[in-house]
Amino acid sequence: MSELASNRTVSAVKNAFKEYYFRSKKIEEPARIEQREFGYSHFGQKGMTRHLSFSSMGELVATLVREVPSDVYCSNACYRFPTYPMQEKEWIEASVIFDIDGKDLDLPCVPSHTYQLCTGCMSATPPQDKQTPFTCHSCGGSKADSVSIPCSKCIDASKKELKKLLAFLKTDLGIIRDSVSIYFSGNNGFHIHVSDPDFVKLDSSARSDLAGYVSGAGLLPESVGVRKGGNGNLGSVKFPRGGIAHGWRYKMAERLKIDGSSILRLQNILVQAGGYSAFKSELEKSAKEMGTRIDAQVTTDVHRIFRMPGTLNSKSGLSKTRCEDIDSFDPFTDACVLGDTRIAVRLKCPVKLRLKGRSHNVSKESAELPAHAAVYLICKGLAEVC
Predict the structure, then answer these.
(1) What's the sign of the alpha-carbon dihedral 229, 234, 238, 239?
(2) For range 30-36, the mean pLDDT
């Protein structure tokens, strides 16, 4: 929601958030709550209040009801002194977190449900089929922020990446399912929390390697037996001593349809590719496609405070919600937790959305919508309270 939103609009959203926090039983208590750092953002203000600590969920919820923050965060790390400055907190351990965001997937459907918000006057322009330079119809400005209302294709694509990640965690890394918690982010993606005892002590460098592995980054031709030199710029073939029956070597061997005895076939593939460099480019392209598209910085950071499960996302008014069954999970229903009290809003442009199983196709300038839909559009910057 824009910092330029009217007081009436901000009050309506804060009231909806406050009601949710007052009655909600869905906010999850983190393990060892007293060792976590908390933080929250404020409506209409930049920055964040952090380095907070709570000894109980009752104390935390009371703060949420009193302060009504726009977003609530909790550290993935445990500290001896969570309220101290970062260099004095004394880090103990941290769950490993992966972030899959629909906006990073380069989906072809996105332009059809992306609105442009003028940075000058906050007027909105509906989705356009052709990518033309932006010009605000109200003030003539040329700069805009893009705001997307995710569709079912966006969510399905994120689920596909999620399933790939879970396969890596189970098959390649040996992490049991009970150590993995999956959450819808509250906007357009998923957060995966890993609490396996063998991983929570990893430092940033090891987590960077982990992020690189599941995303397929840095895979070398030598991993599958293709080496530089030996025949001009063409390269040569010699399988690694450890074989190609595990991890990325196995995945690529399957894709190339080779095994430990397929030296001649791999040589032919190398020739057809055009040599070592060309084969390396094709290998990197395949690894990127087969890997999981995650935000590596999230996984690497051992001090990040992360959106707290069960709390509301100010970009949508939806909640960060635990996902037990990936296939049946519908974020536009399961994470839509605000009430149905009617709120009169002024729409900045015609909009289409589906929440709680009901489609809203609003073409009029003003409309009375259920609170969950009104707040969603306000958080997207597409509506204001009348």
Answers:
(1) positive
(2) 96
